[in-house]
């Protein structure tokens, strides 16, 4: 999940390592929408995943049905009146799909199914009850992909909605900006980076967004927490907000800022002052994805030592692909993540 969140440049996310029960206790009726991508027996994946078949043999389908109901109890407790909950699995099991939804309808009087609009190749849920026609099943023999089930549930509004107790403000974490971040050298390193890297007409927009949010600095790593996103005290976190990058002290005691790939993916092509671009079949993009140092004829010698972005041209649009750093001789130092390099 962390990998995928960073790849899409999501700014307003918090990734936790908490049980559903503890999250429900910390965040009662807090969310407008909840997605429960439930653990399941995985029979919809049998065609291409041998591990799914082995897991199915180890655990009874009722084992997963019990887990799913427990997760849904907590998820429903965290959902605000009027909110929506999506429940999905990758199994064919009736006990883990329609029977779980029927249990929700019986257990929670404020729960109803919102019918899903289905494209060609997607079927209604199995007719356990008449309401199940509003759920969706994907069958591998009917369309491309694996076997899946999905239901959209809505929590009824309440007359006492205005009286619903909000989360006590005392449970929210206060900004924990480290004292070292307040040192002039560290602050200047980040300010210098964005001044040199972002386009002049976009710089003020980023600074304004940064000022509306909260900068969180911890052991050299800088995160930007979007305005309106708060973190309960005691919540075990993997990631908070957008990971911007980290500061590093050089031998001469000078502090520099090194940007993250997640930071780049949160920006648009027009945000950068220095770019190199090409289509997917261009020599520049192929060499970049292989991790090679390459030439950017658009650079000049005076621009050596600066960060810029490599952009992928698709149709009429340009999309950020990865960081580069300018070098003498119009060369670009390749900063594409090593784990994503391709042999093409």
Question: Can you walk through the features of this model?
Answer:
- The chain has 344 residues and is an alpha+beta fold.
- It has 3 domains: 38-155, Vaccinia Virus protein VP39 (Rossmann fold, 3-Layer(aba) Sandwich); 176-265, no CATH class; 272-338, Archaeosine Trna-guanine Transglycosylase, Chain: A, domain 4.
- 26% of the residues lie in helices and 28% in strands.
- The strands form 4 sheets. Strands 2, 3, 4, 5, 6 and 7 form a 6-stranded mixed sheet that branches.
- Strand 15 (307-314) and strand 16 (317-327) form a beta hairpin.
- The chain is globular, with a radius of gyration of 25 Å.
- The protein starts with a helix and ends in a 10-residue tail after the last strand.
Describe the structure in brief.
This protein is an alpha+beta fold and 344 residues long. Helix content is 26%, strand content 28%. Strand 16 and strand 17 (331-334) form a beta hairpin.
Distance between the termini: 26 Å
> Unreliable stretches, pLDDT < 50, 5 or more residues?
162-166
β content, as a range? 25-35%
Fraction in helix:
25-40%
- Find the CATH superfamily of the largest domain: Vaccinia Virus protein VP39
Number of helices: 9
Would you state the CATH class of the largest domain? Alpha Beta
Mean pLDDT: 83
Q: Report the structural category.
A: alpha+beta
State the CATH topology of the largest domain. Rossmann fold
| Cα shape | globular
Spatial extent as radius of gyration: 25 Å
Which series of helices and strands comes N to C? Answer: HEHEHHEHEEEEHHEEEEEHEHEEEE
Number of domains: 3
User: Main sheet?
Assistant: 6 strands, mixed
Number of strands: 17
Query: Architecture of the largest domain, according to CATH?
Result: 3-Layer(aba) Sandwich
């Amino acid at each position: 999940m962390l990998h995928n969140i960073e790849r899409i440049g999501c700014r307003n996310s918090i990734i936790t390592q908490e049980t559903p029960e503890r999250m429900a206790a910390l965040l009662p009726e807090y969310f407008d929408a909840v997605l429960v991508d439930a653990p399941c027996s995985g029979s919809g994946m049998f065609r291409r995943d041998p591990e799914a078949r082995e897991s199915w043999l180890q655990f009874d389908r009722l084992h997963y049905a019990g887990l799913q109901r427990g997760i849904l109890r907590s998820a429903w407790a965290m959902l605000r009146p009027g909110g929506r909950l999506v429940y999905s699995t990758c199994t064919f099991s009736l006990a883990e799909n329609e029977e779980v939804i029927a249990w929700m309808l019986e257990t929670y009087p404020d729960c109803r199914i919102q019918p899903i609009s289905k494209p060609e190749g997607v079927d209604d849920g199995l007719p356990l009850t008449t309401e199940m026609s509003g759920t969706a099943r994907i069958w591998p023999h009917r369309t491309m992909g694996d076997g899946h089930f999905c239901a959209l549930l809505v929590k009824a509004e309440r007359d006492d909605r205005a009286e619903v107790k909000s989360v006590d403000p005392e449970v929210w974490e206060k900004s924990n900006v480290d004292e070292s971040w307040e040192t002039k050298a560290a602050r200047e390193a980040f300010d210098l980076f964005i001044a040199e890297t972002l386009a002049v007409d976009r710089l003020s927009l980023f600074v304004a967004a940064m000022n509306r949010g909260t900068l969180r600095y911890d052991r050299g790593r800088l995160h930007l927490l979007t305005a309106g996103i708060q973190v309960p005290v005691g919540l075990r976190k993997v990631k908070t907000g957008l990971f911007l990058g980290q500061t590093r002290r050089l031998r001469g005691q000078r502090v520099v800022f090194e940007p993250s790939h997640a930071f780049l993916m949160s920006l648009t092509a027009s945000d950068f002052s220095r770019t190199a671009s090409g289509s997917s079949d261009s020599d520049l993009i192929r060499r970049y994805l292989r991790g090679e140092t390459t030439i950017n004829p658009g650079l000049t010698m005076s621009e050596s030592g600066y960060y810029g972005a490599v952009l992928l041209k698709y149709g009429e649009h340009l999309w950020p692909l990865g960081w580069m750093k300018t070098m003498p001789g119009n060369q670009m130092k390749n900063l594409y993540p090593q784990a994503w390099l391709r042999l093409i």
